[in-house]
Amino acid sequence: MIVRIMGEGQVRVDDGHLTELNKLDDELLAEVQSGDEDGFRRTLAALLGSVRSLGEPLPDEALEPSELILPASDATLQEVQAMLRDDGLIPG
Question: Who contacts 55 (Cβ-Cβ below 8 Å, separation ≥6)?
Fold first, then answer.
């Protein structure tokens, strides 16, 4: 799957990592809903770090359709809250 991190670019991540990423996404959703700013910062960094480490960056000139769009690392809790769906940022 192709994941776009806003402000950074796209990363190709194997679908086999979806379960691991969904666990972090579930934590992030709970922290946003509870207003836990420290937990939110920590989990957002972990989620983005996992995508970066598990995936392979696409060249800047590549424009693939993104299946997931994740916020930038400096996104606010309110910005991420506006991006969330019922099941978080990552479906499933």
Answer: 3, 11, 12, 13, 14, 17
